Automatic annotation (TrEMBL):
Annotated Reverse transcriptase domain residues: 114-211
Pfam family membership, one: RVT_1
Cross-referenced SUPFAM superfamilies: DNA/RNA polymerases
Classification via InterPro entries: DNA/RNA_pol_sf (IPR043502), Retrovirus_Pol_polyprotein (IPR050951), Rev_trsase/Diguanyl_cyclase (IPR043128), RT_dom (IPR000477)
TM annotation in the entry: none
Protein name: Unnamed protein product
C-alpha cells in the first residue's frame, strides 16, 4: 500500500524529536538524550513516507518454482484520480524505487481514496502472484514474548524504521515477479514493496540480525561503514579472518545470511530483546541507561544503514 511519497532524504530537525515526558523529565535529561540523537542524525528521516537509503547486505529474493508468469489486465482508474496516480508513479521512478518493466507477468493496481477525500493510496493486488511464491519458514515473534520484561522498567522508547520495506533491494527475478500494470504502463519494483508474500519475513530477518548479532557485512560493504562506528562496535577490518576468502563485488546479490560471516564477540546482542518487523520498542530502569541503550542501538542501525522515522518515534516516555 503506497501513500504520498516525499523527498528521498528530507532534512531532519532533531529538535522536533518527541523526547521526554512533561512533568517527569528535566531539561538536562532531555538534552542528554537529544545529544545522542544529534550525533546519529544522518539515519533519521523527517517524514515516514520518505524513500530510505538501501540497507547493507540484504536482498529480497522470491521463488515461484515452475509457475508460469500471469499477465493480468490493468484496472480502470477514475479520471479525477488519474493525475494523482501519475504523480506518484513519476516520483517512484525519480527516486529509483520502481523501473519500467519487461516482465512477462503483471499484477493490477487498485486506487483507494483516503478519508480526507483528496489523497490516494495505491495498492497492488498481488493475490495471484502470492499464490505461486514459496513461503519462507522464517518466524515472526509472538506479541506476548515482546511484552516480557517491560513491567520492571521506568523509561521507554519506540523507534519506527522509515519505510522499511523500501530499503530492501530486489534480486533480478524478484523484480520481474513484482511487476505491476496500470493505464500508465508496465513497471516493476527495484526495492521491496508492500503486500508481497515473504516481505515481512525478509524484514524481520534483517532486524533480528541487527539487534542480536549473528553475521556481519562482507569486507566490501564493511569498507563503506564510518570509522567511528567500527571503533564503537570493536570491528577492525584489517584483522578479519575472512579477508582471504572468496571475493564478491557490491553488484552481487548474495546476502549476509548466505555468506554467513560470524560477528566477533564484541558485536553481540544490543538490547537483549526482539522487535516486531519495523517497530523497535525498549525500556530501561534509569534515564542514563536509556540514553546508553539508545546510543548502542543507533550505532548498530547505522552499521546496517537502517533509517528511522523521527516523527513516528518516541524517546523517554
Amino acid at each position: 500500500m503506497l501513500s504520498e511519497l516525499r523527498e528521498l532524504s528530507p532534512e531532519c530537525d532533531i529538535n522536533k524529536a518527541d523526547v521526554g515526558e512533561p512533568g517527569w523529565t528535566t531539561p538536562a535529561e532531555e538534552e542528554k538524550l537529544r545529544t545522542r540523537l544529534t550525533y546519529h542524525h544522518r539515519i533519521f528521516l523527517e517524514d515516514g513516507n520518505a524513500a530510505p537509503a538501501p540497507k547493507r547486505g540484504v536482498w529480497c529474493d522470491l521463488d515461484v518454482g515452475d509457475a508460469k508468469a500471469v499477465a493480468q489486465r490493468p484496472r480502470r482508474i477514475a479520471p479525477h484520480l488519474a493525475i494523482k496516480v501519475y504523480e506518484l508513479l513519476k516520483k517512484l521512478l525519480e527516486t529509483g524505487l520502481i523501473a519500467h518493466s519487461g516482465s512477462p507477468g503483471a499484477s493490477p493496481i487498485v486506487v483507494v481514496l483516503k478519508k480526507n477525500g483528496v489523497d490516494i493510496r495505491m495498492c497492488i493486488d498481488y493475490c495471484v502472484v502470492n499464490g505461486f511464491i514459496q513461503l519462507s519458514n522464517y518466524p515472526l515473534p509472538l506479541i506476548d514474548d515482546l511484552l516480557i520484561g517491560f513491567e520492571s522498567v521506568m523509561w521507554f522508547m519506540s523507534l519506527d524504521t522509515a519505510s522499511g520495506f523500501w530499503a530492501i533491494r530486489m534480486t533480478e527475478r524478484a523484480k520481474l515477479i513484482s511487476a505491476f500494470v496500470c493505464p500508465f504502463g508496465h513497471f516493476q519494483w527495484v526495492r521491496m514493496p508492500f503486500r508481497l508474500k515473504n516481505a515481512p519475513l525478509v524484514y524481520q530477518a534483517v532486524i533480528n540480525n541487527c539487534l542480536w548479532g549473528f553475521v556481519r557485512l562482507c569486507p566490501e560493504e564493511e569498507a563503506e561503514v564510518d570509522q567511528d562506528l567500527l571503533e564503537f562496535l570493536g570491528l577492525d577490518p584489517s584483522k578479519r579472518e575472512d579477508s582471504g576468502s572468496q571475493v564478491f563485488t557490491l553488484a552481487d546479490t548474495v546476502t549476509v545470511f548466505q555468506r554467513n560471516i560470524p560477528v566477533p564477540a564484541s558485536m553481540g546482542p544490543v538490547l537483549g530483546r526482539s522487535s516486531y518487523i519495523d517497530d523497535i520498542a525498549h525500556g530501561a530502569p534509569t534515564w542514563d541507561q536509556l540514553c546508553d541503550d539508545l546510543d548502542s542501538l543507533l550505532f548498530r542501525l547505522r552499521y546496517w544503514n537502517i533509517s528511522v522515522s523521527l516523527p513516528k518515534s518516541e524517546f523517554g516516555k
